[in-house]
Amino acid sequence: MEHSGGFAQTYYRQVAVDEGYDEALLVGQGGVIAEGSITNVGFVEGDTVVWPDAPVLQGIAMQVLARELAAAGVESKRRPVFLSDVASFEGAFLTNSRGFAAVGRIDTVDLLLDAPLLATARRLHREAPWDEI
Q: Which residues have C-beta within 8 Å of that of residue 26, sequence separation ≥ 6?
């Protein structure tokens, strides 16, 4: 899905960077997490990747990783994720056209950078075959 402009995304990302963060997390009413300003976000829950079920632009890296997770037999699902849920996850990561990055902290919640599924997801993302065009 396309959108008509990215001003707000760019603005809030710059606010986050100015405050010492690497990325802004876009959050809706009630604390529901959608995506980053220029990234998709996924969460690690045991052996499962949880993608926020909210209005997002499903980036190519997200789509490729979801495909590779499924091919590897790793469960991947979409469900609402709230800021209040973040502490219950073992880890989180971001994907976009620049790659894959583990997330060490969201607000005041520290997340594991070495959760086993993060390493698997990183490897699957890195090893995904390129599409010929």
A: 9, 12, 33, 34, 35, 36, 37
For residues 133 and 116, give the distance between their C-alpha atoms in angstroms, rounded to a whole number.
Answer: 33
What confidence tens digit (pLDDT) does each residue in 3-30 have? 455 555 666 565 555 666 668 888 999 9
- CB burial readout 73-89, b (16+ within 10 A) else e: ebebeeeebeeebbeeb
R_g (Cα) of the chain, nearest Å: 14
For residue 84, give the nearest of 101, 102, 108 by alpha carbon: 108
Q: How many angstroms separate the CA atoms of 37 and 14, rounded? A: 10
User: Helix or strand or coil: residue 27?
Assistant: strand
